Amino acid sequence: MLDVGLALLAVLAAAFMLIRGDPKWVYPVIASALALLLIPIATQLIVAAFTPKGAPVPPLFEWRQGQFFPYPYPAGSLGAELERNYAAIHRAYEALLAVQQASLTALFAVAYTETFIAVASSFTPVGAVIQASKFVAYLAQIGDPLLQIALTTFNAATAGVMIFHFLDFMAKLAVRMAAPLLAISLLAMIFKPTRALGGAAYFFAIAMIVSSYIGYYLSPTAE
Q1: In 20-75, which residue ranges form alpha helices assigned H by DSSP?
Q2: At what angle do helices 27-49 and 2-19 cross, to 10 degrees?
Q3: Chain mean position to CA 61
Q4: Quick one: pLDDT at residue 38?
Q5: Is 61 exposed, middle or buried (0-12, 13-18, 19+ CB in 10 A)?
Q6: What is the DSSP letter of 63?
Q7: Minimal CA–CA distance to 216: which of 75, 93, 61?
Q8: Can you list the alpha helix ranges (DSSP code H) found in the chain?
Q9: Could you report the per-residue pLDDT of 101-115, keeping only the tens digit for each?
């Protein structure tokens, strides 16, 4: 039925422009034909550009036979790929959150232990005994390296969490909204007043899809 809607919109847009005496009345027909051809090709090329060399890129559009002419529509394989990407990104995001929490716990544990020993050594009556103990001597040797390792791990995990939080958000949106936005962009490209809306819908759909694929190939949990 999408071909019927595309044809009706193109005819209505051309008719309104023809009634007004606009010599560019044929533009809506040309725009609809170009949208049907260029949007699937551009989408495939853009996603392929962000895919590692040798990695397969499934067809993102499929051609369906309508009542009057065949038309492109987001393929079912696109939805399956986006769901796969989101699952891998979400697993990586949760793993990074766990590493961040563990390194933060270790960071505070080492820092508070060193602080407690230093305070106890200076202000308690048994400070001399504590200061002379083998535990304090050992802690003095390994405490600072442990603190630096925990801090470095926390900073790296935090950076990863921030990156994958954004990718997780975009991949989740892609699962829900990418296919409808691509379909809307096909229709909105016909009318001049809605052409900007169609371009915006296409841009956001592409941003979601590309982010989903980038996150998948960056994810260590990708299958």
Answers
A1: 27-49
A2: 130
A3: 20
A4: 78
A5: buried
A6: E
A7: 93
A8: 2-19, 27-49, 76-123, 127-132, 134-173, 179-188, 192-218
A9: 888 888 777 776 666
